[in-house]
Structures are given as C-alpha cells and as structure tokens.
Design goal:
The protein is an alpha/beta fold. The protein folds into 2 domains: about 1-260, Rossmann fold; about 260-450, Alpha-Beta Complex (Spore Coat Polysaccharide Biosynthesis Protein SpsA, Chain A), CATH 3.90.550.10. It has 13 helices and 26 strands. Strands 1, 2, 4, 5, 8, 10, 12, 13, 14, 15 and 16 form an 11-stranded mixed beta sheet that branches. Strands 17, 20, 21, 22, 23, 24, 25 and 26 form an 8-stranded mixed beta sheet that branches. A 3-stranded antiparallel beta sheet has the order 3-7-6, with no helix packed on it. Helix 5 packs across helix 6 (about 180-200) and helix 6 (about 180-200) crosses helix 7. It is globular.
C-alpha cells in the first residue's frame, strides 16, 4: 500500500542516491526500501562503501572499476529490477564496498533509477561511536538517513551494547560506562546529522529510529522526539518497526514547543443526501452553506491541513480550492458509501501526517475549540483513536492515528471508522467530554433543519 510505504514518508523522488548509516537495522531497512522502489520501470542498485552481508535473494555482481561495473550492471538489469554491486566477495558471506565516487558515476547512468548505499557498519549493535573516517558518504548523495535502534536506550555503554563505546560516550556527552539516556540517544542522532551534512552538503536528511515494535508504550517515542527537536535541523523524525508488514509507526515534526505530530482533517462531503432530498451541504445555515461552516471551523483550528472529499460534480470546488491550507479531492466511487470517502481522504493527506480527523460535512457546529481540545490530548497521549463526547454520547470529529490506517483501508460499503473500534485495544480509544452539543448535531432531513 503506497499510502503506508516508507518511500512515501521519505518523499522519495523519481531518481535518488540514498545513504543509510548508523545501527539498529539499517541493512533490513535498506532492503525494505529497495523492494518498495523496484519495478520494471525503476531499476534499483544496492551497494556499500564499506562492507556488508551479501543478500541471499538479490543477484550480486563484482567490479573493480567504473567501466567493468557499468557493463556488468547493464547486463544484470536486463533480467533483474534489483542488483547488488560490490568490489569483491569477502569471507563470511560479506561484500567489500566500492569507492564513493564510483557510486556517483553510476548514479548518472540513465538506466539506474535508485542507488541505495550502506555507508558504515555497527557490528550488529543498535548504536555506535564514529571513527574519523565514518560514515563513507558520496558527496552527491540526495537523501541521507541516519538510523539508530531504540533498544539502545537504558543499556549500559559497553562493548556488548555499543559499537566503539568510548567514541560514542565522547560524542554523546556521556561518562564511562553509564546508562544511555534519551538525551544521549538524541545527541548521537544529532552528531550523525552534523557529520553527514559536512560530507553530503546538498542531501536531504531524515533521521529514523528503528525497533519501536519492542516498546510497550509510546512514552519513550515522545521523549526521544522531544529531545531530538531541540538539536536537529531535519524536518521530520521517523519511528519504524522495519520487521513488520507496515513498518512506519510515527512521524514527528519540529514545532515551536518541540516535536509534534502533523495532523490532517478530512471533511467527508461526497454523500448523496438521499434523506434530505437535495444537496444538504449547499443549504444555508446561519448565513453560510453547511459545508462552508464545516470547512471554516476546521481551518480556524490548529490542524495542519484540511482536505475536502467531494463528488466529481461539486460545483463549489473553485471557491473551496481558493482557501489556504485546503485542497479538494474527488471521490468517483462515492456511491459505494462512506468507506470510499475515508480511503480517498487518506490517500490525499500529507506524507508527514501522523493523525487524521474525519469530519462529516453536515456537522457545521463542530467549532475550532473542539478540534483543539482533541489535538492537545492527542499530542500528549498519542492514542489510536480520540473523539469528543457530549453527555456521554459519542460525537465527531474522530482522530485516527496512522497505526489504524491499515484497518481503515480494509473497510467497504457504507461503513465508517467506528467499525474498527472492536479491533483496537480498549485503552487506546479515548473519548473526551465536551460541553458543546455541536459534536453530535448533524442534518439528515428537512425536519432537522427546522428543529435547529
């Protein structure tokens, strides 16, 4: 599913030279991204500038110079979409790396769409200290991804847990064999970023933390993100479980108060209005159309973007699209029910999005403070679902964390997001009481209009 892919979160372009360095599973991540990117129209070259384990399921070629490498790769790409290149094979099923300048030469060959490089080693440790010659990055890299394993936090700084522990301690500002704290962890990520920016000055940087599947709760994730935001100039921090089917779990962006999740709002406006007998969203309510109220309230809140899912025949589209922070997307399958609009909205959210509000277009009295109340709680708790309640009655909008999106994408017919609640841990579903009745008020019939 492209929506849930690592490549989408990294905003990978049509051609990229991507380098991975650090510890905590970078080889697994490299292979995972390579599988996402490879296709008959996109040839992916995997290589290393140091040394790495030889993959079992990917053909390997070896070359000592650029002409030999170009010839062998051209032959291999006639039969395969992914190829591994090394200088020569080492004992222990290892591959010796190629010169970083050869990497750049190969990147300019038209038949290669992506080159993915493992640029250092960590001796299978989740975190490391850097020698003066590391990482070995091509100067022309387009995207660099420093990676650490979250399981390093709480471990002692010694050879059992850290590759080159003395160097790590110096670079992270730690002492001797002390325990690795969140601050040490974030300082290590910051060190990796600074070194990378010197070696590849034009590259984009997206640091990542792997192995979040080992955590019992999200508190450590939020603590790491908060500490990272104080030290980094990157525009996002990704948290991964590279071994899982859907690997990307969290994205945090820097904000004025530290790291925070990016939250989208999807307004569902592609319904048939069958019980109203007319397009209810175009009806006037207190001087504006119903849809205008709904859109304006969302835009006045602290959500990062607003997306209106409309029918292709929506005549208000030009006026809607003129508003900042808002885009309109068509749902050509609107007759299939609300699940089709949920999916259309999800497909349209920003690649940075961690959570999505779903707001019915016919609830014009969900005010900005309702959104902000839910946002504040979500940023603190990172629950899977957060929604308002009025006198104990569940209301809208409901905020769904990206970890629920695979379940939402399985829905069909006229079924909304509440259908997945039974499949989530009870403690991850949060209802917040509000004094505003608008969260439960909708307009389905002419009688509803007369009453309200």
């Amino acid at each position: 599913m492209e929506l849930l892919s690592i490549s989408r979160a990294l905003q990978v372009h049509d051609r990229e030279l991507i380098c991975f360095y650090g510890g905590g599973g970078k080889t697994s991540l490299l292979f995972r991204l390579a599988r996402e990117l490879s296709s008959p129209g996109s040839k992916v070259l995997l290589t290393t500038t140091t040394r790495m384990s030889a993959p079992q399921s990917i053909p390997c070629v070896f070359a000592s110079g650029s002409a030999e490498a170009a010839r062998k790769l051209q032959e291999s790409f006639q039969h395969y979409d992914m190829v591994m290149l090394g200088h020569h094979r080492l004992s222990g099923n290892k591959i010796s790396g190629i010169d970083p300048y050869l990497v750049e030469e190969l990147y300019h060959q038209e038949e290669i769409s992506y080159i993915l490089v493992e640029a250092d080693g960590a001796a299978h440790k989740p975190i490391k200290g850097y020698a003066s010659y590391e990482p070995v990055l091509p100067p022309g890299a387009t995207l660099n991804m420093p990676l650490l394993g979250v399981d390093a936090v709480g471990k002692r700084i010694n050879t059992e847990n850290v590759h080159r522990p003395a160097l790590f301690a110096r670079q992270a500002g730690a002492e001797g064999e002390s325990i690795i704290t969140v601050k040490h962890f974030a300082r290590s990520l910051s060190w990796m970023e600074k070194v990378g920016r010197i070696l590849s000055p034009s590259a984009r940087f997206i640091p990542a933390v792997n192995k979040v599947d080992l955590l019992q709760n999200t508190e450590l994730v939020r603590d790491i993100a908060a500490s990272w935001a104080k030290m980094s100039s990157a525009d996002r921090l990704c948290f991964l479980a590279a071994v899982e089917e859907v690997p990307l779990k969290f994205i945090f962006i820097p904000g004025s108060k530290g790291a925070r999740p990016f939250v989208s709002c999807v307004i569902l406006a592609a319904g048939l209005s069958s019980r109203m007998g007319m397009n209810k969203l175009a009806l006037s309510v207190r001087g504006k159309t119903m849809l205008e109220h709904t859109v304006d309230n969302a835009l006045k809140s602290y959500v990062d973007e607003v997306i209106v899912v409309a029918r292709p025949d929506n005549c208000d589209r030009p006026e809607l699209e003129a508003r900042p922070r808002l885009k309109v997307v068509d749902n050509p399958f609107y007759r299939q029910g609300i699940s089709s609009s949920l999916k259309a909205g999800l497909q349209a959210v920003s690649s940075l999005s961690q959570g999505v509000f779903f707001t019915p277009g016919d609830q014009p009295f969900i005010y900005p403070e309702n959104y902000n109340l839910l946002l504040e709680h979500y940023r603190e708790s990172q629950k899977l679902v957060t929604f308002p309640q009025y006198r104990g009655k569940r209301g809208n909008p409901a905020l769904f964390d990206r970890r629920t999106w695979p379940l939402l994408l399985e829905l069909g017919g006229d079924i909304g997001g509440r259908a997945i609640f039974s499949r989530l841990p009870e403690g991850e579903i949060c209802g917040l009481e509000t004094s505003q009745k608008g969260v439960i008020m909708d307009f389905d019939t002419p009688e509803d209009l007369e009453k309200r």
